[in-house]
């Protein structure tokens, strides 16, 4: 891969891989290692205070499936009103 520079900035190469594929790859590579820890563990949440890569993979697939069953399709806009928390991260991953 050849990098080309224009006005002092290198061109960036981004492989064409979806977020879902990246989450799957991280789950396969890192498994039960901790991936995310809640900054405010006392926040009433559906999720535990921390999650590993396998749990993130499983939860995002379940949430994405549920969102799809509700009729949300690719390209549609979805509003998310959740405080910064593990819930927020899982929801955004599922919607992506």
UniProtKB/TrEMBL annotation:
Q: Name one Pfam family in it.
A: AMP-binding
- The UniProt record lists the AMP-dependent synthetase/ligase domain at 24-96
GO MF, one term, reads: ligase activity
> Which keywords label this protein?
Ligase
Organism from which the protein derives: Archaeoglobus fulgidus
Where are the annotated coiled coils located? none
Q: What is this protein called?
A: Long-chain-fatty-acid--CoA ligase (FadD-1)
């Amino acid at each position: 891969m050849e990098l080309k520079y224009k006005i002092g900035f290198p061109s960036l190469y981004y492989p064409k891989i979806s977020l879902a594929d990246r989450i799957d790859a991280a789950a396969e590579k890192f498994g039960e290692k901790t991936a995310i820890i809640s900054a405010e563990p006392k926040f009433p949440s559906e999720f535990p205070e921390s999650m590993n890569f396998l749990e993130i993979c499983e939860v995002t697939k379940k949430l994405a499936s549920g969102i799809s069953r509700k009729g949300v399709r690719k390209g549609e806009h979805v509003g998310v009103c959740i405080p910064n928390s593990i819930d927020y991260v899982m929801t955004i991953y599922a919607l992506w």
